[in-house]
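Dear colleague,

Following up on Tuesday's group meeting, I ran the structure prediction for the two-component complex that the binding team flagged. I've pasted the input sequences exactly as they went in, so you can double-check that nothing got truncated or mislabelled along the way. The structure tokens for the whole assembly follow below. Feel free to forward this to whoever is handling the docking comparison.

Inputs:
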Amino acid sequence: MRDDRIDTEIEEIIRASMKMTDVPTPELNDKLKAALYHQEAVLQKRPAAHTLSLWYMPMLLNLVTFALLAVLALTVIENAYLSYFAAGICFYIALAGILITIVGVKRTNIKEDITIRIEKRGVLA
Amino acid sequence: MNAKEIERCIDEFGTDIYRFCLKLCGNKTDAEDLYQQTFLKALETEWTLDWEKNPKALFFSLAHNLWKSDRRKQARRSQIAPCDNLDDDAEIVLRSGENIEERYFQKELIEKVRQIIQTLPEKFQVPLLLYYLSDCSIEQIATVIKKPPGTVKSRLFKGRNMIKKRLEDAGYER
């Protein structure tokens, strides 16, 4: 019962602390609306295109390259210990590539940054 | 989306987006930039707005993503700057009576809570802002932060508890 009252109280305080009367100024809204129509005109003049994010490509190439190298090491090197050692290094590098990509996706903007724009010929947006 | 439709969005819920941006950025200049970027970015999307449902969650989501992206590009700030442009007159004094001392302490308490919210980790701050500032439902918040509704409820609960705990640590009694 007491906890319910405290919860209600804290909710009221949070709500009160969030109260704001700030509103965007009419000038800001007018400027924004003008920018919107300008941007729309620019976009319409631009050739139609679709974007393709290639964030996974370095990871994939790294994975394929080192997987092939691992297979090569296992088949070509006759000494079993040496071949396992070489394959292990390849496996480690491939795994590191995946981990670095995951960190990159979580903490940076690689999805947006590694994006290419493919324009459709003769078609306007 | 086309400019005409976005113009309608600005008129319908531009103020909500603006206040959300203001709370996220903590200063007016950055908030105005984010506010404009949000609507300009919407122009490049291919959304079809359903006016029967409340479409503002999409714009909150866009503002949140742009803010996160911008924050990553900048050097990481140790803490978000306090919001210095809030209108003091707008504060609602809880259970306001004639007692000036009580009113003063309520005002101080509200200011303290405001500061605590500004310094909460983003994953608790954003759901709290959307829930208490923008009156978004749990489902809408889930759409904005791209997490299941259960996670949203849990973050709201933990956020409230963190505020409670920090208030107690600061010497505010129950």
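Chain A touches chain B through 32 residues (CB under 8 Å).

Cheers,
M.
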